[in-house]
């Protein structure tokens, strides 16, 4: 076993595959940042709101006022430099830090593909993606290599495989497979689409989409891994993501996944694309075809880097299963739900009314949430317990400044999950002002009155 592992570490592959991924990923990120700015979302999401929901342990990450535009500019510029491979290591670190800071500024905007981008950007810091077809390698021949360790490419493939396969595992539950929920709710909303619109109202179509989606996520990594099924798998990737883009408002995620899965193709494809791009810009590419092989022995600095990357990948394999440490239904409490590749699995809506009471005078105020939150923030807050708790703490602090003595904060909350009738969500007798955020189970979430079987 040890010999096989050593042989694998000594296995090399063409640098063009990682270079192609670097260029494609960087340009997609640049496009995403520019798109975000042009739609006016920087102002709408980060500057105008007077309150921002933060991730536990990252309360210090806040929007920077008008300097938030500068942060986005730095992020976009670093994405461009990452793409062309100029000052690659610095550019990648800056992109990872700036993008992740943006991601952490307000968890209201949480999306799985934002997390995917941060994970990949972090991984790229340790990979030699600038060893070919980069400005760095073009200017300094000592940085140019024709072959690099195969594990540097396989690490990216593993992350993509985790995203798909874990998304498939998450669909193996009774709501998705037995009740076709929440697609039974969502698909009829797109029944106005040409050609396929009429089918989206049909019950059989809801089940067909549900089962096909689960099988697709579970099987696509393996179809892409094997040469004989790779092209078929990629065609499925394109069809699946384009169709989901037409059905759901999920931003650039479909394009990111389509472009990223091209890393599974053989290096000959990547080299042809890069040569055409180089020819367009009249760049000399002979220096990249130099026969040099980058070897990374499992010792010294290289060994430390390899060990760190290995631990990072193991963490990615294990972390999504942390929900098993919590006692209640995952979809109900959402404890361990985020950062686990659970993509579009539930339709959840809620109503939460807060009541703030002065402990001394017993003066009580019913909160109008729209005075403090945007409509999008209020919607997200209404059914997510960590949002509810953080907002309750905000109200406590706000009313302390207004002169209240030790204000108590209680919530009347009702939530509906995947077409079920709404039920009371938060224990109304619990003073949320005194509850502390932690990784422990939130006992003030009332039990789910139904059962969802599966993973």
Task: Set out the fold topology.
Elements lengths: L1 H9 L1 E3 L1 H23 L2 H7 L20 H17 L3 H17 L7 H13 L10 H5 L7 E3 L1 H20 L3 H4 L5 H4 L16 H23 L1 H21 L5 H8 L6 H14 L19 H19 L11 H4 L14 E10 L6 E3 L8 H7 L3 H17 L6 E10 L5 E2 L31
Antiparallel strand pairs: 1-2, 3-4, 3-5, 5-6
Number of domains: 2
- Rg on CA atoms, Å: 25 Å
Question: Stretches where pLDDT falls below 50 for ≥5 residues?
Answer: none
Q: Measure the end-to-end span.
A: 32 Å
Strands side by side in the biggest sheet: 4-3-5-6
Largest sheet: 4 strands, antiparallel
Protein model, in words:
By secondary structure, the chain is of the alpha+beta class. The chain folds into two domains: 2-321, no CATH class; 347-434, no CATH class. Helix content is 51%, strand content 7%. The chain contains 18 helices and six strands. The strands form two sheets. A four-stranded antiparallel sheet has the order 4-3-5-6. A hairpin with a 6-residue loop joins strand 3 and strand 4.
List keywords for this structure.
four-stranded antiparallel beta sheet; 455 residues; 6 strands; 2 domains; two-stranded antiparallel sheet; alpha+beta; single chain
Quick take:
This protein has 455 residues and is of the alpha+beta class. The protein is built from 18 helices and 6 strands.
